[in-house]
Specification:
Elements: H1 7-23, H2 31-53, E1 57-59, H3 71-86, H4 94-101, H5 111-124, H6 152-157, H7 162-180, H8 188-204, H9 206-211, H10 214-230, H11 233-244, H12 254-265, H13 267-289, H14 293-311, H15 330-336, H16 341-370, H17 376-393, H18 404-421, E2 424-426
Antiparallel strand pairs: 1-2
Length: about 425
Amino acid sequence: MIKVLRQPVYGLFMLTSLEILFLTYAQNMFGYILSPLVLLFVSLSIAILPLFFFNQLDIQKQTLTIQRSDRFTLLAVCLFLLIIFVMMFVPRGGLLKLYQVFPVDKQYSDIIPTIQVMCKRLLSGQNIYVSIEEFGYHLPTTYLPMMWIPYSIAEFIVFDYRWITFLIFVFTILLTILLFVHHNRNNVLPVFLYLFFFFSLLENKSDVLGWTVEIMNGAYYTLFVIAILSGNKYFKAIALSVCLMSRYSLVLYLPVYFIAEWQNKGFRTSFNIGAIAVTITAAFLLILVQNNWTELFQGFNYYSTSGLGEWRHLDDKGLPIHICNGNGFAAWVYFLKNGSLEEKFLLTRKLHFLIMIVVSFMLLLLYFFLRQRIPFVILMICIFKIYLTFFYGFIQVPYTYLFVVPVMVSIIQVFIVNSFYVQVVPANNTRK
C-alpha cells in the first residue's frame, strides 16, 4: 500500500529559505554571538527533520535515474531558464552589470586572479604549483586542481572566467530538474529555492558572485549528493574525487562515508569506489603538481597565515569583518578567550579540528544506530548535511561565500526528501 504524504517539502522549503535569508538579507540580525547559533539550529533542523519523517519507513527504490523528459519537466526547465535569463538584467542591472561593477583585480580579491595565473601556466606549459610573486606579495598556490582547471576553457577562448562558474551552477540545476521533477511534479517548488538563492546573492551579496567561485564548489557537492543516489560506483568515485580536488573540507567525512558504503554495499563496492577516486585524484596531482609537493603543503599552511590576517581586518566599529558577520562561532573565541590574537586564532583552529573529529565519530555512531530504521540514501545525505553544518560553523574564518556549499546541499536535500517520501511504504504497513 503506497502512502502519499507531502508534508516534508513544506517544512524543509521554509527552513532552507530561512537558511538563505540568514546568509543574505537577515545576516547577523541577532548579533554576532546569537546569529551563529540560530544559523546552526536552522541548518541542523534541515538535516534532522527527514530522519523523523522516514523513521521506520521503507523506500521501494532507493535510486533515481534520468528518464525521457515529459512535457511537465521540460516546462520546468524552460521556466527556470527564463527566470535565470531575466536575472541577467535584474535586479540592479543583473549579472551582466555585476560583472562590470566587480572587476577581477587582486586589490579586491585574489581568488580569480590566482586561478588566472594557474590556467595561464597550464596552457603555456609552465610549472603550475609554484608560488605567485606577480601580485606584489608572496602567495603559495593554494588551490587544488578542480578549483581552477575548468577555467582553462575561458583562458583558451578568452572570456570572463566567472561565466564558467555560472554555467557549472546552471548545468547542475538543470540536471537536478531533469532528475527529480520527472519523478515528482511537486519538485517544481524546490526549483524556486535555487532562484531565490541566486536572486539573494545578486541583490544582497553580489561580491559572492563577483569575486568568488564558490557556487561552483556548491555544484560539485550537489553532484556528489546525486551520486549517492545513483548507485553507480563510477559516478560516486568521480564525484568524490572532484570534491576532494576542490576543497579540503570533505576529508574527515570520508571514513564515515566509506564505512557506511561498506556496511550497505559490501567491502568490494566501497573498495572500488575508493580505489577509483584515489586513482583519479592521484593522476591529476601527479601530472599537475609534478615535483612541487612542498608547494601544496605551503599552500595549506597559508590558510592559517591569511586567516589570522582576516582576524585583524576590522570594520569602522573596530570589529573583525569576517569574524563578526554572524555566520560562525569564531566570534565566540574572539570575545570570550583571553590572550593575544594569535592565541585566539590557534585555539579556533584546534577547536575546529577536534570538533570535526568528534562530530565524524558521532555521525558514524548515528549511522549504525539508525541504519535499520532510516533508508540508506536519506540517512547518508542527512549525515552529510550535519557534517557540513559543523564544519563551516566552526571554521576559523567564516566567510559568507563559503556557506554557499551547505545551502546548496540543503536545496538538493529538499528535492530528494520530496521525491522519496511520496513513494514510501511504512514498515508492516504502520508507523512504529
